[in-house]
Each structure stands twice: as structure tokens, then as C-alpha cells.
């Protein structure tokens, strides 16, 4: 089945630094990938849609200059949290849909990245 | 505004019990409803439901959708400790086939030995 890989699984960084998270589709090409965020005891919320070859689309309230998204190839999207602050500490999860299974097929999620900003 | 509400928010049962998790939704242009299981990491896909009244089954798990009453249930029979997880219900948002899923708050299920 479709597999989405995310790296790193856990990162601890200091305030003010930047952190890059990678999301790869392993057995399919994804022109679109989706970045979600989950705060403790809350549900997943879509942050942005990563589009290969064009700019990402951000959800309302998500700062595009803070969360930089680059969809460098058909199998790789990266999310960079710039100038991280403690309030950015969260669980970041990417997802993608196997296009061969149709637009109505379910999203598959990566294993997530737990970011802790000290 | 599109909305997904799950109940109960948490549930504690003993091995062998049967549980029913509920999900109600309000969404414009409904296309499907999805159930995911989330253990400590990312959600894993369980079911996608598009038609009313047709039960989907996978082992001890089953789910059904009622598009008239706008809800779905997820049943787990003969629960095991490995079923302990957060169960998430979600519906796609918007008129196009995007990846924006509106998730419910989740039901945290704890199965005790």
C-alpha cells in the first residue's frame, strides 16, 4: 500500500533556530502533500497544502513566512519552521494520497515529527 | 462551518468487551467519512464510508454510515489491549478533492487486561 515517510521523528531545538522536516512518498509520486499539526489533546488541523512546482497554499491563520514549504520533487516536500518558539512545539504530520487510487482515496499519513522548542 | 463531533471523548473497557464509537458531522457537499486509528504516532487508515447503510468490516472492527441522520459508528468487538488508541473520524472539506480533512476531537479508548 501507499507509504509516506517523515523525518526526523523527534527534534528538540532552541528558541530562534530553524528546523526542517522532510516528507517523502515512498512508492508513489505525489504532486500534492498536506501538512497537519496536532497540539496535545487536540485533533489534527491542516496547516498547508504543498504543491510540486508551485507555491504552497496556507490555511487561514498559518504564517507562510514562518512555516516555509518546499515541494522539491514529486516525492519530497519539506516544512521548515523558522525562528522557532516554544509555542511552535507540536506534532507535525505530513500526508499524501496515492494518485493511482483516485482523488477520492484516503490520505495516508507519515509517522509525524514531534517538535519541542526550548 | 463544517464540523465533526465524536463521542464519547474517552472510554475505558476490559478485554473482551464490545465498544461503539460515534461520529456526527455537518459538512457541505458531503463526499465521504473516514475513520483512523492513532496510537502514539500518526493516524492509520481504517475505513472510508461513502454510502448509507453499507457496513464495512475488517476483522473485529466494523463501521456504518447514516447519511440521513449525519452520523457514523465504529464498532469493535472482543476488544484487546492492542485496540487502545485514539480513534479519529474525519470528513473532507470543500468542493474539490483536496487533502483538507476536518477531524473530530477523537475518542480515546483504553482497553484494560
Architecture blueprint of SSEs:
The complex is a heterodimer of chains A (118) and B (113).
Chain A: E1 4-7, E2 10-13, E3 19-25, E4 32-38, E5 45-51, E6 57-58, E7 67-73, E8 76-81, E9 90-96, E10 108-109, E11 113-117
Parallel strand pairs in A: 2-11
Antiparallel strand pairs in A: 1-3, 3-8, 4-5, 4-9, 5-6, 7-8, 9-10, 9-11
Chain B: E1 3-7, E2 10-14, E3 19-26, E4 33-38, E5 44-49, E6 56-58, E7 61-66, E8 71-76, E9 85-92, E10 101-103, E11 107-112
Parallel strand pairs in B: 2-11
Antiparallel strand pairs in B: 1-3, 3-8, 4-5, 4-9, 6-7, 7-8, 9-10, 9-11
Pair with the biggest interface: A-B, 26 and 22 residues
β-sheet strand percentage of chain B: over 45%
Number of strands of chain B: 11
What is the rounded distance between the termini of chain B? 41 Å
Mean pLDDT of chain B: 92
Secondary structure: number of strands of chain A:
11
The biggest beta sheet of chain B reads: 6 strands, mixed
Mean pLDDT of chain A: 90
Major β-sheet annotation of chain A: 7 strands, mixed
Sheet-strand content of chain A, in percent, reads: over 45%
- Tell me the Rg of chain B in angstroms: 14 Å
Helix content of chain A: under 10%
Give the overall form of chain B: globular
The best one-word shape of chain A is globular
- The H/E string of chain A reads EEEEEEEEEEE
Assembly type of the chains comes to heterodimer
Number of helices of chain B: 0
Radius of gyration of chain A: 14 Å
Q: Would you list the SSEs of chain B in sequence order as H and E?
A: EEEEEEEEEEE
Distance between the termini of chain A: 37 Å
Amino acid at each position: 500500500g501507499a507509504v509516506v515517510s517523515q523525518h526526523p521523528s523527534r527534534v528538540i531545538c532552541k528558541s530562534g533556530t530553524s528546523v526542517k522536516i522532510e516528507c517523502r512518498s515512498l512508492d508513489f509520486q505525489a504532486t500534492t502533500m498536506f501538512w497537519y499539526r496536532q497540539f496535545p489533546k487536540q485533533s489534527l488541523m491542516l496547516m498547508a497544502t504543498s504543491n510540486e512546482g508551485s507555491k504552497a497554499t496556507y490555511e487561514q491563520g498559518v504564517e507562510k513566512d514562518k512555516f516555509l514549504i518546499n515541494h522539491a520533487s514529486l516525492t519530497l516536500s519539506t516544512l521548515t519552521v523558522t525562528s522557532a518558539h516554544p509555542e511552535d512545539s507540536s506534532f507535525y504530520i505530513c500526508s499524501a494520497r496515492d494518485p493511482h487510487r483516485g482523488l477520492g482515496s484516503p490520505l495516508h499519513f507519515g509517522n509525524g515529527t514531534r517538535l519541542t522548542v526550548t | 462551518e463544517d464540523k465533526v463531533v465524536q463521542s464519547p471523548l474517552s472510554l475505558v473497557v476490559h478485554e473482551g468487551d464490545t465498544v461503539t464509537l460515534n461520529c456526527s458531522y455537518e459538512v457541505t457537499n458531503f463526499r465521504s467519512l473516514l475513520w483512523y486509528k492513532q496510537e502514539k504516532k500518526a493516524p492509520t487508515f481504517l475505513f472510508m464510508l461513502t454510502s448509507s447503510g453499507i457496513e464495512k468490516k475488517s476483522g473485529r472492527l466494523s463501521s456504518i454510515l447514516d447519511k440521513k441522520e449525519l452520523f457514523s459508528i465504529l464498532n469493535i468487538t472482543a476488544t484487546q489491549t492492542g485496540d487502545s488508541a485514539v480513534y479519529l473520524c474525519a470528513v473532507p472539506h470543500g468542493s474539490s478533492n483536496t487533502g483538507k480533512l476536518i477531524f473530530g476531537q477523537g475518542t480515546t479508548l483504553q482497553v484494560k487486561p
